[in-house]
Amino acid sequence: GTPHKYDPTFKGPIYDRGCTDIVCCVLLVVAIVGYVVVGVVAWTHGDPRKVIYPTDSQGQFCGQQGTPNAYVSPAMGALGTPPEKPRIRLRGCSGPPRLGEIPLTHPRHFQICVSNCPDRFLTLLSAYSSSSDMEYYRQFCVPGLSDPLQNAVEVLKNKECPAMLIPSTALARRCLPAVQAKKGVIMVGNETTYDDGSGRRRNVTELLEGAKKANVVLEARQLAMKIFEDYTVSWYWIIIGLVIAMLASLLFIVLLRYLAGIMVWVMMVLVILVLAYGIFHCYLEYAKLKGEAGSDVSITDLGFQTDLRVYLHLRQTWLAFMIILCVVELVIVLLLIFLRKRILIAIALIKEASRAIGHIMTSLLFPLCTFFLLCLCIAYWASTAVFLSTSNEAVYKVFNETACPYSGHTCMPETFNTSNVTKACPDAQCLFAFYGGESAYHKYLIALQFFNIFMFFWLANFVIALGQVTLAGAFASYYWAFKKPDDIPAFPLFSAFGRALRYHTGSLAFGSLILAIVQVIRVMLEYLDHRLKAADNKVAKFLLGCLKCCFWCLEKFIKFLNRNAYIMIAVYGTNFCASARNAFFLLMRNIIRVAVLDKVTDFLFFLGKLLIVGSVGILAFFFFTQRIKLVQDTAPSLNYYWVPILTVIIGSYLIAHGFFSVYGMCVDTLFLCFLEDLERHDGSTEKPYFMSPGLQKLLKKSNKGHPDA
Questions:
Q1: Chain segment 136-149, per-residue pLDDT in tens
Q2: Residues near 166 by beta carbon (within 8 Å), at least 6 away in sequence
Q3: Taking the complete model, does pTM exceed 0.85, yes or no?
């Protein structure tokens, strides 16, 4: 590209600007309106209770208002005769019957809503011998059972009562076998065997397959309760830890103004010393193996060995290590020698960014606004996805035990008893099968879910872009102030935010749309990869891996390009394509400076996050494990001390990341403005530099006729 020429009218971010990329702005508004319509339709048809609450065999919710089971506790048991070999599966006990899992001619156990789960082993035949047992047994039979003392064969044939009861535990509103282990013995209700209702004794281990899944969920629930208890007694200490992390992040940013150069050079010297020690150690190992049997064998003669320690007994291995480290050491030393000036420029820009944030302190709070908007996007996407996934209607199918031409056909429970099906198949029943639908809305549910995901990526990227343009506009106002801080305009952050929304919504929508398309393609590739895991097609897997790698690189490049394009938009008010082109060419004309600044800032941010998260995490560890004697009695008593410690560590990282994201945007903005300053100005009276005196001194430049600049 062509370097920018001097413009006497340019004094920083342009205020007299016009709207850009209007078509994309209109497209975004239309898409948002469509997204709202999809949400309203989903909320109208969807019912999250289908995911949360169980149903009986008629598809009625247990314990929910407006249903026949409104006054029954939402616990569900299985009703019916046991199969040849009873196997209690989680899906078998807790969900509605689904076609395809078992033959339609062999219906699944009935499901009913009960007030309480069974707490004892009991069979229907044994219950007939005691009126109290029969009264207890009756609550697990079909509601409205007229005569429980009728013939047991008729009751079982009509599936009005289960053949047996098993001690169960209410888990996720469903009755699951209460399996427990005592001294290594698997037991259910303190019994190791049970009567299956047909006079045969069975071992409770036959229930183990389903019980394993049930116990995992039960233990997870108990773990969740203990974690919740730990949060209730330690939440205020967690908040104190997060406040400490926030103060430490702010202090680190302030200290970078004074310590950035020291930290960078000290770490580079340490890297050189570590590599030098590695070379010395390799030489010692190489010399020590001299004369030992087998140490002179070459690696090619030895071939591939699964035990990698074998290679450490070869002199050739340590010689190779020593040569590699010497090459790396030489490259680093040469880079430091020839790039020392550019490293100094990067350090000076980092220090300047700390000063800019010091003059625009409100920029540190702006990520909270971005975080809030992102939370809204996530909440809307998640709720819409749930309502869309539960928009299906209850579908009823014909189930029967004998051969029937209507088996598997759709039926309506209201008219089933008067239909021809009952005449042709007397034992057939119309039962709830699954949630589905035949309407046009149900046919396009997958397309609506895809649109929901796409809009989430688009809006989330738009929110992030809005934050980047706002921060870039504020920090550009700082750089292009000739006399800092006197010439910095009032409320630069709010002014930049207003300009971004008023003039550049279309440009932000354009950039975020491109990124959203790439991200959706990556999601589709991940889905295909998941589907192809079971397939043994190496060519397809190889091509898919290449595509995933290419689109990952493309996403990284677009994020880099968008970030710099947004800076140019904030400064010049041009459209997205022109801003991206100008930013890209400007960076390519200074590619070495870009690489050096990028690596130096990445290193400092990594060091800062490591220092903040590590120090706060160590402090939290010593406090919550009661190892600090001064506050030993103050620390709360916990079930798991790692719960608040991990919370503090994760929260500290997020806080540090938020602070450093602002700092990173500040560095990138000042860097682009610095490159523009070098191309536009020469330090003369007519074309003075806007850079700080420290940068001018570093570059051996000065403003003639402006001694105070």
A1: 887 887 766 655 55
A2: 88, 118, 121, 177, 188, 189, 194, 207
A3: no
